[in-house]
Amino acid sequence: MRIQCPFCGERDLSEFAYLGDANARRPDPNAPDAQSQFFAAVYLRDNPAGVHHALWYHASGCRSWLRVTRDTRTHEIFAVELAKRVEG
Amino acid sequence: MRYSIFSLIGQALRGHRDWAPAWRDAQPQRAYDVIVIGGGGHGLATAYYLAKVHGIARVAVVEKGWIGSGNVGRNTTIIRSNYLLPGNIPFYEFSMKLWEGLEQDLNYNAMVSQRGVLNLFHSDAQRDAYVRRGNAMRLHGVDAELLDAAAVHRMAPLLDFENARFPIKGGLLQRRGGTVRHDAVAWGYARAASSLGVDIIQNCEVTGFIRQAGRITGVETTRGEIRAAKIGMAVAGNTSRLAQMADLRLPIETHVLQAFVSESIKPLIPGVVTFGAGHFYISQSDKGGLVFGGDLDGYNSYAQRGNMPTMEDVCTEGIAIIPAMGRVRMLRSWAGVMDMSMDGSPIIDRTPHAGLYLNGGWCYGGFKATPASGWCFAHLLARDEPHEVARAYRLDRFATGHLIDEKGQGAQPNLH
To answer: Superfamily for A2-25+44-87?
Structure first.
């Protein structure tokens, strides 16, 4: 598996570190149901067999956080974006 | 047909022409008392103990492929009960005791070989950690021995004791640990379950659940609807996909783990040896191949195949403790998909849906747990209460904070 870094170009997998699901969001701690929201954000995952969005860190390269869209059944990568840009 | 030396001699004299199939390839009936989804080691063991211990005869195992086609045939065959936490030790020790009597119980040669599991340590701090682990095991009645470097050298002289970076200071040995012929576990349970009347239904994929009055009352499959009062899921690796059909979102990520085997060589490794300075474990099969593995690849995957960096990493670690391995050619590598739970420990529990039960989250330690997992899941399905040694494996522990985190990594499944 090779990842097309937006800054560094196509690089080997071993240069990247993996964090996990990019759709997990830190909930609002002041929300009335904050406890259950935090439980879901920390522990529950969709874990799809198919298209999956994940955060990767280009540790041995430009040190950017990337949002990688990939098929978990085939390891085919559809998109690599700068995570900051996607999250706004 | 009962297997024995006499049946073997009799069949040998007849040219092995009259062996009966080991289990019935059953057709699905309309309804059962219990359906177990997943014809792997855990599912087949569950069905066997449901029939044998709890006297429930109308049991079906539905399997999307052929039995034993998943992780029970893809692991590195290690059994051990060298855990640290009170939630885990009694369960894995119960499993070890079941392994010790398994072949007589099933009348099937599973090649259970208690050749010892040796965890090497390489620093004073790591010795302390293993002393603690060994003491925790002994407090629970599990065997554990601390070996110094000289004793390790007598067991395994080919290890690299001169390594300047990772000197071998000794090891924690569990002599009752060892290896088991993994496929034979699936076949042995299938044969024993089938002979007690369990229907083993292959090529039958579950595509949905049937719900009635707030209960799960059956499954839709590629071979039609099958109903049952109770349904157990034992499909580790694909638990999230199956649970999604029942609108359940679980504390599980699916990750890929690779395993490797070398060409056959003369006896080199006495039992199971693990490298303490990294994550590497190795044993030698009876055929002579070195069977070894290491870390997960580290990213979500259902692909049943891994990538090269992990392969390189595992081989580097192997050569760090056994330099002679560098001269051995690798024969095959393969991978399986793991239910990585958020604390690294399994789940055997009811689900929020009445009639639906969950067995999953085995991470990459499911094989050694097969007998106890089947026993405890059967207990839960039959009596609607958890077995004593599996009480801690609750689904709600992530919400309540009662985690069983052996490695202390937190909710980061690729690091467990």
So the answer is: Folate-binding superfamily (3.30.2270.10)
